[in-house]
Design brief:
The structure is a homotetramer. By secondary structure, chain A is an alpha/beta fold. Helix content of chain A is about 50%, strand content about 10%. Chain A contains 12 helices and 8 strands. Chain A has an 8-stranded parallel barrel, surrounded by 6 helices. In chain A, strand 3, helix 3 and strand 4 form a beta-alpha-beta unit. The longest helix of chain A has 22 residues. Chains in contact: A-B, A-C, A-D, B-C, B-D, C-D. The interface between A and D is medium-sized, with 29 and 29 residues.
């Protein structure tokens, strides 16, 4: 079961599809193996970048079972939903299948501090003792969650054990949360998303690791490992080497297609298919990715000699 | 099966709950009977005011089956969903159960004309030959659908047979759509929502009736009937008599609680419960509704003498 | 100078233009006379419905001076602005010209409780001892201001003496603010907008009057007067008689054109011109207004016999 | 006068303030000199990152005059405004003072393709023969401008000579616009913003240069120059060296404070003051910038040996 001590790299898994848009469960296996091999310490599935909203409830459950059957790593399941009945159904079947916890983003209709707190009260009530991750991703949810609101949720809801941090800008938020836990608030795990674009500084501010799906999970694993042993220079060298592609993959909307393209190229999944409605990469974009990958490999080779 | 000739009053049905939040299927029966008795010519279920987003997929299906089993009126099922897999699953099980058609609102992420058209192309592809209703409700969806976009969808998607019109302001939109069909575009049915606040003028502009859930469906039935026989004065008399309560019930958010309170008072459903998260009426609000209903009855009595 | 005891009807004044879009200062005079004659106890100028955003700073100042020169009623000037420098400039020149206070809506970029409070701290600092009105109009500003935030602003900023209340739904907000002042918070004036659509219930909840620009200011004056002497039945009779037109004029966007059309018809201003970019009334809309006005006059005549 | 052939680097200038928030006109001079020395081929002032909204109209005019007096480079003035009267006033005084053109972002209230086109028709009418730049920055304006809309504006409004491109993702948009001009549409200048984060790929797609304010304008100058002579490897080397800081400065909101901090450190302006309401850098952020600058200098030194 997920708890406040979680750290390392929870990879945001994609959901693989066949060229006709059907679920590709065999690629789920190869993808899980790939993430494990590249250094993941946990997996997060059915998140926004996992195209969760495009799955039927049967498909969601099939993905959960397949992933959990393939690995011993802790698995967090995204259960964000317009209503609590569907959230509860997926959370409960996922925990029964062996998930470590669930992740919930706030619905875009929340407007005030009190509405956000009230929403997570309801979540906690609906989910019972299931450990939960608060996903803070204003760029997509359009809900700005102030530090005071996070602290209130942490105080009121003991099952909230982790923040998926992807506010932008969000570095001061990490510092403020860590100052609050230093001053006595319950300390929860903070894993950072945003495609890894600020992982370096996030670790310096007190994050416990990454939760993101950049198609080279070894970047996150290496940066987090280097920071843990205090080798900031190496962490920066690695980070900077991957940054041009990190940046390119972080483009909203089309980023998912870029990521799947790279994962397919690396053999993690069989097809780069994004389910409809979704973007497709142009030839120009495919060339741009290839050029970035080539330079990235050169730079990594230079660094490792 | 629903087609372009649909008219009259399709009542937006609420979803009845027991005080503990569980589905109240017995009240589904009494509610359907009530709507039929008050003059509905069709029913629309699982819409926004039907708290569709709060139901699990099993619950949604149970409501669909129960409603259809209770009436011979055509039933339209709201199948709006973040993804096409879930939309397809509910649409297909609903049509199998005997629904007349489905209704789809655009997701709030659509931003441009082309994105909206593309979305409804995908809807049409996903739903095959199921007749569909385009729900145009910018106040809630935050998607503004121009007349040109509606006409393009009507042109491209033969299964789009009805517009649920609740843009605000939207009177010119009705006029423009009717001018377009007079000039040769396919004429689809236009039924109007917005709690009935503009029903009078909407009929004058060429609407075919109402699709809304005001707790006195006889208002919509009487106004539409009077307009059909050309008795505008009586239509206005009736409309004006109900307007103070129409206006009160049209308050966003809390409107659903007001409506269910009235429906429970009228015996249509057993409990006024709104499922969490949802508003509850204050004592002051309950008094305000009572005062409005009392004056409404007086005014109607005056008119009928 | 405006203070917490303000009550009655502060009419939201329009800004009259000539057919070519130039300021029509002569109509400013006739409009002020009209509002006074119809029962206004104050005027609010350069609000959202005063097309304030479309004026140059020179034009804004010219309107302020002209209005204040024409009447002894207290005049509130809308000074909302993207920045404090422009806000300060207009506030200061308005107060020098004899204004009673200023009104400020929150900019749409504010997202959290703390940001809203911080913004009004900055406003208070920028405006010194100028009395201020907090405009709470989420439908237009997209900023939801919780009761706790209003109370914090009232506590921190002694120059905030009035709430222009047009949240929707907002009746519970009035009750909560009045409960807070009954329990010891500073009591500020609450005048209500939203085109007058809820004036009846707003008065019952504890509002001090109206601040809105419905083209028949005598409606607000009569309703407020009736409520003050405790004649709720008469207040409701009057309110209901005007409600069909109130509702029609409250349509967003086009409402301003409807209002100016009526004001021009009533002789308050010379031309119904809305400055570009702005809507124009169709022939159908003009007929609809005429029909509503005719019935309104009949109903008022009935009531007064 | 600005025309469709403009290219190179138009630096987005900041607006310098004294520690008390007053305009720092002496720093305007040193800043202009700095931009010129670092390779700017033009300047863009009073943009979003120029804190334009926080200036009074007098201050805006003072900045325009001071900048133009200091340099012979073409100067573009941001004149975005809630209304055309204020836009026209600033545009006209700027052109009289010697500006090369003006830039206009769409107001956040525009929702449909037709509304955007209509808005720029009105802009063109208001500005007469003043050359204009269409600023396409959805992350801030919340207005998504499709390629078809840009092409319609280009077709209808001959004074629209440049696109400030900062859609995100926006690479396909550049390709589509260039394909359209290859096929016969009028070819306008495309200069790219977004802090320079995609400058490399933007140039590959057919952009004519950069219009952004990254605190090391020499990055943009060097990348654009290298691309112009076809040295893509050098362009990438330079780009990658600056990218960690580019990314850090591109954080919304706080980015302006980071940029001014760096500009002050480099001697371009005397004080890093951001006018209220605005962010302030924490000590941690200042350390992060210092670390990034140090590595950047090392990397540049490596590349240049």
């Amino acid at each position: 079961m997920l708890d406040e001590t979680a750290k390392g790299v929870f990879t945001i898994a994609c959901t693989p599809f066949l060229p006709d848009g059907a679920l590709d469960l065999e690629s789920v296996d190869s993808m899980v193996d790939f993430y494990v091999e590249k250094g993941a310490t946990g997996l997060t599935i059915l998140g926004i970048m996992g195209e969760a909203g495009k799955l039927s409830s049967e498909e969601s459950h099939a993905v959960v079972k397949r992933v959990i059957a393939r690995t011993d790593l802790p698995v967090i399941v995204g259960v964000s939903s317009p209503g609590f009945a569907a959230m509860q159904a997926l959370a409960s079947s996922s925990m029964d299948a062996g998930a470590a916890g669930v992740m919930i983003a706030p619905p875009h209709t929340l407007k005030t501090d009190q509405q956000i707190v009230g929403y997570y009260h309801n979540v906690a009530e609906a989910l019972g003792d299931t450990p939960g991750v608060l996903q803070d991703f204003p760029l997509v949810t359009d809900v700005v969650v102030p530090v005071s609101v996070i602290l209130k949720i942490v105080e009121d809801c003991p099952t909230c054990v982790m923040l998926k941090h992807e506010d932008w800008p969000g570095l001061e938020k990490i510092s403020a949360l860590r100052a609050a836990s230093d001053a006595g608030a319950r300390r929860i795990s903070i894993l950072c998303g945003n495609g890894g674009q600020f992982l370096l500084e996030e670790m310096l501010r007190g994050a416990d690791g990454a939760m993101t799906g950049f198609a080279y999970p070894e970047m996150m694993a290496d940066v987090v490992a280097a920071m843990e042993v205090g080798d900031e220079v190496w962490a920066r060298d690695i980070f900077d080497a991957y940054l041009p592609l990190v940046r390119y993959e972080a483009q909203p909307g089309i980023g998912m297609a870029i990521r799947k393209h790279t994962l397919a190229n690396r053999g993690a999944i069989a097809h780069p298919t994004v389910r409809k409605p979704g973007p497709k990469l142009s030839e120009a974009a495919i060339r741009e990715v290839a050029a970035l990958v080539e330079r990235q490999e050169q730079r990594l080779a230079e660094l490792r000699t």
